[in-house]
Amino acid sequence: MTPQQVLATDSAVALIEKLKSQHGDLMFHQSGGCCDGSSPMCFPRGEFLLGDNDVKLGEIADTPFYMSRSQFEYWKHTQLTVDVVPGRGGMFSLEGPEGLRFLIRSYLFNDEEYAALEAAGRV
């Protein structure tokens, strides 16, 4: 079985659902470490322009999650879990007014999991 490359905690799913009720369909893009640090950024779907170098890691709460291919090269060995903590995140990300911010927790795939991802053409 191929492991999922992106997951979300129950708290993150609850916030995603709340934001969907306010903004409609959403998308995530993992920030590359500029201006807003390296936070997962949440946008109304279609308002962040994706390019040929963006990789879709999967979906959380029916919401696609992307990152740049160059950044994916650093993260491809890890499973990302989107979580929520109190505080202010990226000023362009939709969760800011909620007094919460999305963050990433990571898990390093073991050899068997990574081999399954390779066999599936995911890395």
Oligomer: single chain
CATH topology: Hypothetical Protein Aq_1857, Chain: A
User: Any idea what the shape is?
Assistant: globular
The total number of structural domains is 1
Low-pLDDT parts are none
CATH architecture: Sandwich
Which series of helices and strands comes N to C? EHEEEEHEEH
Strand content: 35-45%
Short description:
This protein is an alpha/beta fold.
Protein architecture, described:
- This protein is an alpha/beta fold and 123 residues long.
- It has a single domain (6-119), classed as Hypothetical Protein Aq_1857, Chain: A.
- Helix content is 24%, strand content 36%.
- It contains 3 helices and 7 strands; from the N terminus they run E-H-E-E-E-E-H-E-E-H.
- It has helices at residues 10-23, 69-75, 111-119, and strands at residues 6-8, 26-30, 40-44, 54-60, 63-68, 78-86, 100-108.
- A 4-stranded mixed β-sheet has the order 3-2-5-4. Strands 1-6-7 form a 3-stranded mixed β-sheet.
- A hairpin with a 2-residue loop joins strand 4 and strand 5.
- The mean pLDDT is 91.
Structural key phrases:
three-stranded mixed beta sheet, 24% helix, Hypothetical Protein Aq_1857, Chain: A, single chain, 3 helices, 123 residues, alpha/beta, four-stranded mixed beta sheet
Give the secondary structure arrangement, pairings included.
Elements: E1 6-8, H1 10-23, E2 26-30, E3 40-44, E4 54-60, E5 63-68, H2 69-75, E6 78-86, E7 100-108, H3 111-119
Parallel strand pairs: 1-6, 2-5
Antiparallel strand pairs: 2-3, 4-5, 6-7
